Amino acid sequence: MSNPAMTTTIRIAAGSIAVGLIVLMLKTLAWWLTGSVALLSDALESTVNVATAIAALVAIRIAARPADHHHPYGHHKAEFFSAVLEGVMIIVAALLILREAWHGFQAPRELDAPLPGLMINILAGVLNALWCRVLITRGRTLKSPALVADGHHLLADVVTSAGVVLGVALAVWTGWWFLDPLLAGIVALNILWSGWKVMASSLSGLMDEAVPDDILETIRRIISDRATGAIEAHDLRTRHAGRATFIDFHLVVEGETTVARAHEICDRIEAALKAKLPEAEITIHVEPEHKAKHSGVLVL
Hints:
Layout: H1 4-34, H2 37-63, H3 78-106, H4 114-141, H5 145-174, H6 179-206, H7 213-226, E1 230-241, E2 244-253, H8 259-276, E3 280-288, E4 297-298
Parallel strand pairs: 2-3
Antiparallel strand pairs: 1-2, 1-4
Helix pairs in contact: 1-2, 1-4, 2-3, 2-5, 2-6, 3-5, 3-6, 4-5, 5-6, 7-8
Family: Belongs to the cation diffusion facilitator (CDF) transporter (TC 2.A.4) family.
Subcellular location: Cell membrane
GO biological process, one term: intracellular zinc ion homeostasis
């Protein structure tokens, strides 16, 4: 836990639990005051927010553990499992909302004390909006998939709250009480799409997807610029897991190059890569010149 970035990540994840509990209490109060099906659905999704915030915190703490005998590459992928779980829970919440919306649509009813309920729900939505911005921006900076996924989950909740407020306000204004469950159902469909996107993004990490093209091009340029004394680098492979970026490639040097000289070239490349990607894990396989493929990264 001595890593400052990891310490910050854990603190933010813990903050999500506190914010989630406050928002859940506010939305539950709003539903209790009004009896609105849409507000009940909004509160149901907030229970998932709390559960996923706890899951994210547990995953981040596991990911912070150093590599060990059984996990020589570290525990970084734990965050992806958490993000997949969040995606599943978002989808489950959307299905629950659709269920409540269907029942409400079959038997619409006039709402009690709609104005206080709406004001409380708006307050909860604003709090969620502010916190989801913190999660997404800080999660990207800290390269934490769990925080980013939690932020997108909260963003879906903000959209839900906006739709719910609109539906309840229109129902009160027009007296068309079926609008309450109808808007809840429409927003639930949007949440389903959000949950799928969170899952798809996380599954790419679990499948060892390569780094984005712009980062790959940066890696190639650094190798080309810093590998003076080598001939080429080929079979470059990358993958990402949480904050860690794994890079491995073959570096071809002239046959008479000494071990010490080859090691010096490798150290120079590693230092330059880590300066750009501090969490990079780099493996370089040195080969003699007859192994050259005349492809990949040519050394400038």
